[in-house]
Amino acid sequence: ERSRKEGRGRQTFIQMSVLFKCVTSLFPLQAQLVSELLRVTDALDGLLLGGVRVFGVSSPPRQVWANGQLVRDFSYRTDTRMLTVPGLALPMWEVFTVRWAL
Questions:
Q1: Using an 8 Å Cβ cutoff, are 95 and 35 in contact?
Q2: 41-46 contacts at long range (C-beta below 8 A, 24 or more positions apart)
Q3: Dist CA 19 CA 33 (whole Å)
Q4: 3-state DSSP of the chain
Q5: Contact, 28 vs 58, CB < 8 A?
Q6: Which residues contact 96 (CB under 8 A, 6 or more apart)?
Q7: Is residue 18 within 8 Å of residue 66, measured between CB atoms?
Q8: pTM, full prediction
Q9: How far is CA 69 from the centre of its chain?
Q10: How far apart are CA 47 and CA 93, in angstroms?
Q11: Residue 28's pLDDT band (boundaries 50, 70, 90)?
């Protein structure tokens, strides 16, 4: 999605398409997106994930969490079954999770 890298007092936004592992949890009405770090390089320093889009979510989520913190700004489109979570600031150099409850 949209990421932000800060350097020398200015911000640069980078548009990225990244695939992550989507895991259905042991609880039938919850699912989560989990990042998997394959290789960490200096290129990820300061790079933040600004938001995610998850396709194929079966019904509108009631709540969404990012790294255990409740996210209030999210939307769901019934026609495309897409969950959109904007306004994040998740470090790309660390493992992160986005979890939702249906």
A1: yes
A2: 44/92, 44/93, 45/93, 46/5, 46/6, 46/7
A3: 10
A4: CEEEEEECCEEEEEECCCCCEEEECCCCCEEEEECCCCCCCHHHCCEEECCEEEECCCCCCCEEEECCEEECCCEEECCCCEEEECCCCEECCCCCEEEEEC
A5: no
A6: 34, 35, 49, 66, 67, 90
A7: no
A8: 0.73
A9: 12
A10: 7
A11: low
Position 2 scores a pLDDT of 42
- Residue 48 CA to residue 91 CA, distance in Å, equals 5
Q: Say which residue the tokens 């600031």 belong to.
A: 89
- Residue whose tokens read 């990244």: 18
Tokens found for residue 70 = 């409740």
Report pLDDT digits (tens) over 65-74: 999 999 999 9
What's the gap between Cα 22 and its chain centre?
11
